[in-house]
Amino acid sequence: MNKQLLVAASIAAATAFTSPAFASSPDSWAELMKRASESCVKASELKNARTGVPVDFSDKVLVIIDGTWPQPHMKDAPARFACLYDKSSLTAEAHEAPL
């Protein structure tokens, strides 16, 4: 009987000190992906920018941006950028990627 009481008390104590996991809603995921895409387009500075489907990682979102170079001497040549959106700092860093 004492062993059962000890097991029950242990389970009660373990569950009392754990926090529940909260899942994000589909709307909050959509908002994150939208914010990441918009930030990455801005960071790339490309004209006629189009984004691919964002890829979610634990602390960042990867966005591929296709567009054209904005400088007149580039004559609207195609360009591709890879961008990482940092979820904690809410900043985007874009760099040219091979076509």
What does this structure look like?
It is a single chain. With 99 residues, this protein is an alpha+beta fold. The protein has one domain (26-96). It has helices at 2-16, 26-44, and strands at 47-51, 55-56, 60-68, 78-86, 91-96. Strands 1, 2, 3, 4 and 5 form a five-stranded antiparallel beta sheet that branches.
Instruction: Catalogue the unreliable spans.
Output: 5-22
* Gyration radius from CA atoms, angstroms: 23 Å
Distance between the termini: 71 Å
- What structural class should be given to the helix and strand makeup? alpha+beta
Question: How do you describe this structure in short?
Answer:
The protein is elongated, with a radius of gyration of 23 Å. Helices cover 34% and strands 31% of the residues. It is α+β, with helices and mostly antiparallel strands.
List the helices and strands and how they pair.
Elements: H1 2-16, H2 26-44, E1 47-51, E2 55-56, E3 60-68, E4 78-86, E5 91-96
Antiparallel strand pairs: 1-3, 2-3, 3-4, 4-5
Keywords:
99 residues, alpha+beta, five-stranded antiparallel sheet, 34% helix, 31% strand
